[in-house]
Design a protein that fits this description.
- The protein is mostly beta strands and 544 residues long.
- The chain has a six-stranded antiparallel β-sheet, with no helix packed on it. Strands 4, 6, 9, 10 and 11 form a five-stranded mixed β-sheet that branches. Strands 13, 15, 18, 19 and 20 form a five-stranded mixed β-sheet that branches.
- It starts with a strand and ends in a 21-residue tail after the last strand.
- The relative contact order is 0.07.
């Protein structure tokens, strides 16, 4: 207020400046005080001075909620319902607070729209996709009590849909899927049905990394692209060996899951149609395992069996190897050691003049894992040169490489431990290394191409003649095929009983268009000299 003060004459009067109004109280009103989830209430604060006069230019006033998870302040003087419940709204300016206004939030259970989702938008004939409907209120929030839905397919000749929402492909084509409740219908989803793709088999052995015990209750998720995945849950296998029947294709991801264990993820795996592809054994890590573990091994020259110094061993996190975690160099004895956090890793080995290779390892906290010997192949320089390298685990102690092919006299040569070289007018083949005390390598090099059909096999000499033996299939044997400066193919031993693993055939009838054909079967022959069977015929793989 303004004060007029005079002393004596009027000319002696003065006007004092106004005294500013001081905020003394705030009265808060909110409308409405009962809203639904997603709706808002608007509040009006009234600021007054100590004399009770309403302030026309009050200081800044803020709004707060006693329970933001029920009623959240959404604007300067508005609040939105989050979930059912009651909350108090209070206006505040400095130390002055208003009365509390109680607002009740209720769930709006009036159906306004339907959200329809399906597990796949493309299936094969006889394939299925599971659809789920969800009722929403006008604010887009799910209803607390869902109504019954009626599922419809616009073209039942293409795909049918059950009362429970399971879609089954009938014939190739497209159909529109909807869900309805009363007068409310969901937006339509388009489903495409295609003819069945040719199928292949992925064989995966899953074991506990610490105990090597077979694991049951495992699921496998194959993803062509990230949003398009199919989960396979095969029947349990006492040996932990799973044969997964899937469409032949290249998959962006394969995720292996088991409750209580860390999931494993492989990237960019190809499952050729009509073939069985054997993945290296997956050694699953219990989630309780923590801390750092140690991995050590040795690197050898594949053609001499001698230790290789100066080889760079690089550990990359993940089964397919992404981010580099650690690198070390092999010493004069070819040995190396890495200490890594518990997890799955890809270990690559590289050295100038040699062809780089990679394998996986499960690092177990507080333990040391011996990955044994691994072999590096020198680069091949001749146009007709090929090399086949076998490595395996500690048991059995003696696995043998065998290569048979056409000889100049019309018979078939047989290169193995007892006949290490075959040289005639058709070509030249040599067993470079014969290993009898575990791990390998066993290496065969073709330096001059014998035109015709070659067959490569692995014979379990330690258990020869035992048709019930599973030692070969559990040996961890792996065969790598090299040509030029590249690793062409890798084969992991499949599950089975017997002493002979017929790995592949290589058709060099036309050396310019070689055909590498996986066979991947286990049988029994007994004596080494009997590894002479007629090669099975399967589908060739493409070669660079």
């Amino acid at each position: 207020m303004t004060a007029l003060i005079c002393t004596g004459l009027l000319s002696s009067c003065r006007i004092d400046p106004p005294v500013p109004d001081t905020l003394a109280s705030i009265t808060l009103a909110c409308t409405p005080q009962a809203i639904t989830v997603g709706a808002t209430t608007t509040c009006t604060p009234q600021a007054k001075t100590s004399s009770g006069a309403v302030m026309t230019s009050p200081p800044a006033i803020s709004l707060t909620s006693s329970a933001p998870d029920v009623l959240a302040v959404s604007g300067a003087m508005t609040a939105a319902g989050v979930k059912a419940g009651t909350a108090n709204l209070i206006a505040r300016s400095g130390s002055v607070t208003s009365n509390a206004v109680s607002v009740t939030v209720a769930q709006d259970n009036t159906l306004a729209s339907i959200q329809l989702t399906c597990s796949a938008d493309s299936i094969e004939t006889s394939g299925t996709s599971t659809c789920t409907a969800r009722g929403l209120n006008s604010a887009g929030a799910p209803l607390t009590t869902q109504p019954a839905f009626e599922f419809r397919s616009s073209n039942a000749a293409v795909a049918t849909i059950s009362p429970g929402g399971v879609v089954t492909g009938v014939t190739p084509g497209q159909t529109s899927l909807t869900a309805r409740s009363g007068t409310v219908t969901s937006p339509a989803l388009t489903l495409t049905v295609t003819a069945p793709a040719a199928r292949g088999t992925m064989q995966v052995t899953v074991r506990d990394a610490s105990t090597r015990a077979a694991l049951s209750g495992v699921s496998f998720e194959f993803c062509r692209t990230t949003p398009t995945c199919v989960t396979v849950r095969p029947a349990d296998n006492p040996a932990g060996v799973y044969n997964l029947d899937v469409p032949g294709d290249t998959y962006a991801r394969l995720v292996i899951r088991k409750d209580g264990y860390r999931e494993g993820e492989y990237l960019n795996l190809t499952v050729p149609a009509g073939q069985t592809t054997v993945l290296e054994p997956f050694l699953a890590l219990d989630q309780a395992i923590q801390g750092d573990g140690t991995v050590h091994g040795r690197v050898l020259d594949a053609t001499t069996g001698a230790a290789l110094a100066g080889v760079t061993i690089t550990a990359r996190a993940g089964l397919s190897g992404s981010q580099v975690t650690q690198s070390v160099t092999s010493d004069a004895s070819g040995r190396y050691s890495l200490t890594l956090p518990t997890g799955y890793y890809a270990l690559s080995a590289s050295k100038s003049g040699y062809i780089s290779t990679s394998s996986t390892v499960s690092v177990i906290g507080q333990q040391t894992v011996d990955v044994g010997d691994r072999a590096l192949s020198p680069e091949l320089t001749g146009s007709g040169e090929w090399r086949f390298v076998l490595n395996w685990g500690a048991e059995p102690s003696d696995l043998d490489s065998h290569l048979t092919g056409p000889a100049a006299d019309g018979s078939r040569f047989h290169v193995a431990w007892y006949a290490r070289t075959s040289t005639d007018s058709l070509g030249s083949v040599n067993l470079d290394v014969d290993d009898t005390d575990s791990y390998g390598p066993e290496t065969i090099t073709v330096t001059e191409t014998p035109e015709g059909l070659l067959r490569y096999s692995v014979h379990d000499y330690s258990d020869r003649g035992d048709s019930q033996s599973g030692a070969l299939s559990s040996s961890g044997a792996r065969v790598q095929v090299f040509r030029g400066t590249a690793l062409i193919a890798t084969y992991n031993v499949p599950s089975g009983q017997g002493d002979l693993w017929t790995v592949f055939t290589l058709d060099l009838t036309d050396p310019n268009t070689p055909k590498l054909v996986p066979v991947n079967t286990i049988s029994t022959v007994g004596a080494s000299e009997q590894v002479q069977r007629t090669p099975g015929v399967k589908h060739p793989i493409s070669l660079p």
